[in-house]
Amino acid sequence: MINALEVQNITKKYGDFSAVEDLSFRVPAGTVYGLLGPNGAGKTTTIRMVMNIIIPDQGSIKVLNETMDERMKERIGYLPEDRGLYPKMKVGELLLFLAEIKGLSRDRARKASDFWLSRFDLADWKNKKVEQLSKGMQQKVQFIVTVLHEPELIILDEPFAGLDPVNTKLIKDIMLEMKEKGRTVVFSTHRMEQVEMICDNICLINKARLVLEGNLSQIKKQHGKNTAVLEYEGDGGFIGAFPEVEKIDDYGKYMEIKLREKVDPQDVLSKIVGRVRINRFEVQEPSLNAIFIEKVGERHEQDMVGH
Amino acid sequence: MSKIWSVIKREYLQIVKTKGFIIGTILGPVLMAALVLIPIAAQLATVGEQKTIGVIDASGEIFPGLDKKLDHKMKDGRRRYILQEFAPTTDVNSLRLVLSQKVLSKELSAYLYIPGNILEGGETEYVSLHVSDFEEIRRISETLNGVVVEKRLNRAGLDPQKIAQFIRHVGMKTIKATAKGEEEDTGGTFAVSYLLVLILYMTLFFYGAIIMRGVIEEKNSRVVEVVLSSLRPFQLMVGKMLGIGAVGFTQYAIWALFGFGLTRYGRAFVVSSFPAASAFKMPSIPAYIFIYFVVFFILGYFLYGTLYAAIGAMVNSEKEAQQLLMPITMFLIVPMLLMMLVLRSPSSSISVILSLIPFFAPILMLMRICVLLPPFTQVAGSIVLLVLTVLLMIWITARIYRIGILMYGKRPDLREILKWIRYK
Hints:
The complex is a heterodimer of chains A (307) and B (424).
Chain A: E1 3-14, E2 17-28, E3 32-36, H1 43-50, E4 58-63, E5 66-67, E6 76-79, H2 91-100, H3 106-119, H4 135-147, E7 153-157, H5 165-180, E8 184-189, H6 192-198, E9 201-206, E10 209-215, H7 216-222, E11 227-233, E12 245-250, E13 254-259, H8 265-272, E14 277-284, H9 288-296, H10 301-306
Parallel strand pairs in A: 3-8, 3-9, 6-7, 7-8
Antiparallel strand pairs in A: 1-2, 1-4, 4-5, 9-10, 11-13, 11-14, 12-13
Helix pairs in contact in A: 2-3
Chain B: H1 2-16, H2 19-45, E1 51-57, H3 63-69, E2 81-85, H4 92-104, E3 110-114, E4 125-128, H5 134-155, H6 160-166, E5 175-178, E6 181-184, H7 188-220, H8 224-228, H9 233-273, H10 287-314, H11 318-344, H12 349-356, H13 361-371, H14 376-404, H15 414-422
Parallel strand pairs in B: 1-2, 1-3
Antiparallel strand pairs in B: 3-4, 5-6
Helix pairs in contact in B: 1-9, 2-9, 7-9, 7-10, 7-11, 7-13, 10-11, 10-13, 10-14, 11-13, 12-13, 13-14, 14-15
């Protein structure tokens, strides 16, 4: 399979601090790829190195089967974690400028910006200054900037952060639309539910290093059918003390129970019956969140759930 | 290259289209013209008021002469000063007290006390509510002086008219020796070189600050990373500096046209109202001065522009930048303070050394070129040093810039900056 992005053994150090350490992963063309990790894991540094904004100390990066260099930037669409537009520029002028530095001719830039503005219902705002737009509209403009030049590879750093539900859906739809067109989407996030909805492959980074990489459904299979989901009413804290149970993630009304090897879930169910009111008990693959927490450690639990 | 061009275009249009630029560009010369023309017009328009001056002539010999000589006319032809004599009494002090009261009550605009020994060297006294109209005081003092000297000469049996001829002031023209021959210079060289240096000085300050503000704005609005996903930090920096520099050139071109028009037609206006002004000749400024002006303008702009860009990249807000601007401000102010030293002795070794220092060269070498063209080796030397420094500064700044523009939060200290410069 052709890879849209190949990262090989990249390392970036700032003095004694390692931002990224010996990281490698591959993104197959035409897929949606999730770059996961808690805050400060090195996701943004990795993405900036892919974009040639930061130069890695070691390692190599190949984009669309070519070594990453300035020229390749024109074939990539990038949404940085820190969003921003020139507040004093008119929307139309801003899009033209940003398309031009992506290598589009003025004529093509104008057509593309008109197309996307009308698609996002912003055609009437073309001659307004960016600062006059609402926050939601600015987010749309920001997203237009990312896809305006029809990039083959789209890299989104925390694309859903701070978005309202309408724009969240809009971006998710466009990501899937791009995939259908055969383009590749890479995005970073620390929110697992989005990853499960749209990603084909993932990699998990923690403390500058790769923890896990591969196809999402395969990863889930590898982690086995030793997880049960319980929806209940009452106080379920006692379940964690069962010898059959390795650990629980208790959300109050909902609980993920990780079972020890060779334990029959039915035994556990029979021990719970009568002590809490059970609305649902289901044996399933572990959620990505559970895998994530298992790999990254309890310390980051707050991070994950809090968002 | 075409990407740099896009950045240049954006920077240029974003500034040129603002109201601030349009107003500043039009208002600048209008203000300058107003500064020159309003006082002239005001002087032309005011008739002034007639003033009554009381005179106590204790010598009894001066008043008639003074009354005759102090006959300055106002625009409407009336006498400006009406002298009113008060015969000295035995008690002069009580009379002076009375006149003092009259001055206070504005019955008299002033009074003049001429002592009895005036011809032997006594001093006169001028009493008024305020003694800040130097022009008027000089006029009265000189007239009085003339009258007294004439009396003294008469008493000694000399003919004042002959004496006046003997002691007539000897004029001295100031002439510059140039390769094309000798040229009269009534201070024009100084005025022009001062003006050119002042323009250079203000530009470096003004456009440097615009560069810095632009960098800070890109950082604060977080747009910089979007731009960097299409081009190199270096391209952004150079494009920004060239674009803003082009704005500077546009502004000067407009002002130069305006200045040309003003000297062409404005001078006729000034001379027609002040015939004396025709004595001031526009100095003929050799073309090389303008060429060097442009050279030092460009080099100075890049030298200071990179410094401002680096500071913009290091800080989060303009307020934070103020402290870091101190050294730059010093670099710019020191040559302005040293200017008089260089003007007085443009070829002294201290002037030569100072004008070779790259951070001072744009101002001081230009000053020397205006006053007295230094040997070519010195000019070339300062330009070479300046070019090398500019290249070094661009290299250093580019390295600070590429890291700084993505850094938010705590301002880096010097150690950290040095680390940035060393990063790959």
